[in-house]
Design a protein that fits this description.
Copper-binding protein MbnP-like domain-containing protein, five-stranded mixed β-sheet, about 280 residues, alpha+beta, MbnP-like_dom, disordered N terminus
């Protein structure tokens, strides 16, 4: 009988100790749902030198053409942050109303266009990924799924009729041999449902490594500074020249496919601020 009572007391004590240990462990490692904010800065330039001055800054292409820009606009969407373990946080994926932005050089402040993201999970992020343009999945949601962004795009001249869709990149300016004296207009983008229309899909996703970890906390709002080298327009992986055949183009012709592929290499992260 004494042995039975001793064993009973032993098991009771053991269970209390176990429950207490579990409770302490839970208290030491609660699920952290802290969120913070993050800023992405885009700076357009030539050859990794920022701050293009519209109608003034002149660049000589690899083919020897001189060109400048009177308009530089492009759409970024589907921003994704990738942490040290490779986990992804997707910011309003395929939701243009909340997750798509128009980078317009005319809006630059001291050469920089700012994007502010909120509700970012606390974490250490090593990479950033984003789409150049609007994905087909988002576009095919129709007008009800993106009415706010559609209005913004229309106001910015970054849309065709609703059936045709968005302008992804708008580059306008002048080009020439001795000096920029001939106007050009290259507008890239998808024309409606690319599968149904049997046309190229010009939406591209770009992944960039961060030279310094972006540490998002409730107190720290990192700033990721991205340089866009617009020299890649004509001097990228495929050397291009503007001619009377392609200097006024809209949509997804082969020339604009080549332009798109060149532009996907124009981005790099210059630095990250954690403050």
């Amino acid at each position: 009988m004494k042995i039975y009572k001793f064993l009973s007391l032993f098991f009771i004590a053991f269970n209390i100790f176990t429950l207490s240990s579990c409770k302490n462990n839970d208290d030491d490692d609660p699920q952290d749902i802290t969120t913070g904010n993050l800023q992405i800065k885009f700076e357009n330039g030539f050859n990794n030198l920022g701050d293009i001055v519209l109608n003034q800054t002149v660049q000589t292409s690899a083919a020897g053409q001189k060109h400048n820009f009177s308009a530089v606009k492009y759409v970024v969407s589907n921003i994704t942050l990738i942490d040290e373990s490779g986990n992804e946080f997707r910011y309003n994926e395929n939701n243009p109303d909340k997750g798509a932005f128009i980078i317009d050089q005319a809006d630059a402040l001291a050469g920089v266009i700012y994007i502010d993201l909120n509700g970012i999970p606390k974490n250490n992020y090593k990479k950033v990924k984003f789409g150049l343009g609007i994905s087909q999945k988002a576009y095919l949601l129709g007008q009800d799924g993106q009415a706010e962004f559609w209005t913004k795009a229309k106001q910015k001249g970054m849309s065709w009729s609703w059936a045709a869709g968005y302008v992804f990149v708008k580059l306008e300016g002048k080009y020439g041999t001795a000096s920029p004296d001939t106007e050009f207009m290259n507008h890239t983008g998808n024309m409606g449902n690319v599968i149904a229309n049997n046309t190229p899909d010009l939406y591209r996703e770009i992944t960039l490594n961060l030279p310094t970890t972006a540490r998002v906390t409730a107190q720290i709002k990192p700033s990721i500074h991205i340089l866009a080298d617009l020299n890649q327009f004509l001097s990228g992986s495929k050397i291009l020249s503007l001619t009377t055949e392609n200097n006024m183009m809209m949509g997804s012709s082969q020339h604009l496919v080549d332009v798109t592929n060149n532009l996907t290499t124009m981005f790099k992260v210059d630095h990250v601020h954690n403050d």
